[in-house]
Design goal:
Length: 62
């Protein structure tokens, strides 16, 4: 009896319609994609910070 919590309420997924299961699968896929994109964003932000530091070191002194 798998359960899932939605809006602080527990639901038994065995009771879900096929369409509800499809929507749940889509929701889970979207959550996974958001997590993957957040990892990529963190990588890009880290790289940007490194490039900014490197640029600062290359700027002419006043």
């Amino acid at each position: 009896m798998p359960t899932i919590s939605i809006d602080d309420k527990e639901y038994n997924t065995d009771d879900f319609s096929e369409e509800a299961m499809n929507q749940l699968g889509s929701l889970q896929a979207a959550d996974a994609e958001i997590a993957r994109l957040n990892v990529l964003l963190a990588i890009a932000q880290t790289a940007r910070n490194a490039y900014a530091r490197a640029l600062t070191e290359e700027l002419p002194e006043e």
